Amino acid sequence: MNYWLAKTEPDEFSIYDFANLPTTALRWDGVRNYQARNYLADMQLADRVLVYHSSCKQIGVAGIVEVTKTAYPDPTQFDPASVYYDPKSTKTTPRWQAVDMRFVEVFNEVLPLKSLKTLPELNDCPLVKPGSRLSVIPLSSRMFDAIIASASRR
DNA sequence: GCCAACGTTGGC
DNA sequence: GCCAACGTTGGC
């Protein structure tokens, strides 16, 4: 099993959307960065993904979801009405990928970025580097475990 | 709202 | 291939 962290703006999409539909797989779409897209494509069934809330009141890790369907062409890239529409993408050579994920757990409290920065296990993680804009980040099991342990201590 | 850091675009 | 200009991200 692999571990990941994926950023989202909770005003748009959040761990609570998953928690409200705990048995339903939801599509993680709208990724429009090549490196993040490549990581999305690397996700395997049942991989664990930490959901990170950015650009909001409570910035940090909010919960866990799991991959239920591996990468497939992100339909929003073909939809002119979507904010994620990409006119340069074609059905034969789609640029962008989506994966489906399902709820696993919501933390009692969001584990704040400030706390993440204190975890020595995350020293080399782009998440805590200023200016990092990578929205899908691979985590080692050590990083993942450190975050879970820190969240459960709160 | 500000602004630094970053990724992408496009002219050359 | 270079790099300036631009638009976006994201913490504060």
Automatic annotation (TrEMBL):
Residues 2-148 form the EVE domain. It comes from the Bacteria. InterPro entries: 5hmC_binding, EVE_domain, PUA-like_sf, THYN1-like_EVE. This is EVE domain protein.
